[in-house]
Amino acid sequence: MIEALYDVSPAWPVIIAGLLAAAFPMHYVRKGLALIAPVLAVFLWFNAPSGDHLGGIIELGGFTLETFRFDGLSRIWGLIFIIAAFINALYGLHEKDRLADASGLIYAGAGLGAVFAGDLLSLFFFWELTAISSVFLIWGARNNAAYKAGLRYLAIHVLSGVLLLTGAVIRASETGSWAFDETLSIETLGGFLIFIAFGIKCAFPFLHNWLQDAYPKATITGAVVLSAFTTKLAVYALARGYAGTEQLIWIGAVMTAFPVFFAVVENDLRKVLSYSLNNQLGFMVVGIGVGTELAINGAAAHAFVHIIYKALLFMSMGAVLLRVGTVKASELGGLFKSMPATTIFCLIGAASISAFPLFSGFVAKALTLAAVAQEGHWVVWLVLVFASAGVLEHSGIKIPYFAFFSHDRGHRVREAPVNMLMAMGIASLICIYVGINYGVLYELVPFPEAALHYEPYTFDHIVGQMQLLLGAMFAFAFLVRMKWYPDEKRGVNLDTDWVYRRFLANTLNWGHAMFGRLWASITNLVSGVRSRTGGKLFEVFSPIGALSRDIPSGLLAIWTSALLAIVLLIAYLSP
Amino acid sequence: MSDPNGKHDELIHPAARPFLWLDAPWLKSSMIWIFLVATLGLVAVDFFHHRHEYVELAEFYGFYAMWGFGAFVLAVMIGWWVIRGLLGREEDYWDGDSTDEEGQS
Question: 20 to 30 Å CA-CA from A19: which of A26, A391, A418, B63?
Fold first, then answer.
């Protein structure tokens, strides 16, 4: 243990590596930085003192910033973020894009910084840094759709940051506290604004569509990197500040269910994964809402394994996109003949997310489901079991089936590059290792004692889970046989993004056009009044106007006499 | 691109050759029976072993198999009829250009 490093958050080496990567034109130096930075970060993670630790305190402008809070909750999130940063660096080793290298590292570092932040101001700084750095992973695709999606993504995430800061300021003015802890409450205005800020990043229902809009349009590596940090940071923030908030139970339940319906008919397989990501976040949010030790363990364990298997699935689709040039299900099929290793890795990711026994999802999801059932939320439990079958549909079957099996479209492409295969291989190993040796995961969760009392591999649990999965797989085979399974066809499905991409945009355009017309009418009216008034004045006062006209002297004499008579009359009659 | 059905397709990855049976029509047509038998086998376990569950409803014979089947069918039908039926649009709906919908590096 090196005490001098107790104050150094694992975020800093990653952020500094990102800043250096921005300066280095040699790509092998940047790749070296991307691989070394997570190693340094994990060293700092292991070097942190056991037990709760608060370090890295910076006094700035009268504020105290706490940059390294290391406790049960930040420990597991910090470790998985570091592992994800390393796997992502390995996956993107073949790319020669300075902007992507730098932004990917700064983004991962900012995510780590936010996880280890001990106060709301530090959290805000890193929160905004994740938004600003990550948008370059979308823009990196360098096409018009990605550019527009990136702008929308940035606007929504900056709004989240603004709400976070506003909420924090209001709360500080009321309580004098900038603490980022369990004292946050949705009962107060400040706490509510912070809750919404977290909810935007966590893709709550109706606030979710930035995810499905932006992630599928990111670069191949960018989508993998994005899938790891932003939303899981929000889950962490909710677990830190709002554990036990009952509203989260129903918010989470809705999150698990509605993306299933969209994913069924989505043709873009990276968009399917984005909906699937939304569905998985729902399980974590429910766990946080339940708020018991077992439930928080479930959310943390789920976040840990989810980051790996979701990245694995995004990596496999990225490999397909790299080699085939598309991830549209309607254009794919039969790729297992060309990309057998990628197929196996994708199947491992699919088995993990579907929670097959011996894979990581099985041991993690079980904690949340058990906690929900133990607390008597049986309706929510039924929704979660429904969503589990939904997960199998879109991520367990649809992704591997339509990409690698189904109708052979005749694509004969090369297998993914070696670095991609290595990254997918490591992720696959983790999925299987954690699924079998689940004690490692249960020791990492915030309340290890509660987790170690839970036994996932009971006969009842295995039989029940296999019944669910095989019942759903039989349904798939049945629907396909009866030709009741929808064909994969090109198209898009409207979601809540229609509100701001079409309705609000059209309303603004209409308002702009109407304002233009109104302004033109006002301008015409004013110029008309002005010209008419000017004309009248001209008619009266100009050299040829009425006042300059010759008036007959006789008429003038009559008027003068009349006025004189009136004046004399008044003078005579007045007392 | 090459012959999609050609078993002697030289462009097929050597590691994939032993698994070409995965693409065989007999396997595709028999999947329904394989899954049906497996599901019924697991449901049969419930008749010999009483599962203990936190939620009483789940202790019913074959509950998970029925819930899994029903959930899958419901998800597909709502997705097909409601989402695609009501919310489905042409691919160029947003920007009038579908070619750049996919991000690439």
Answer: A418
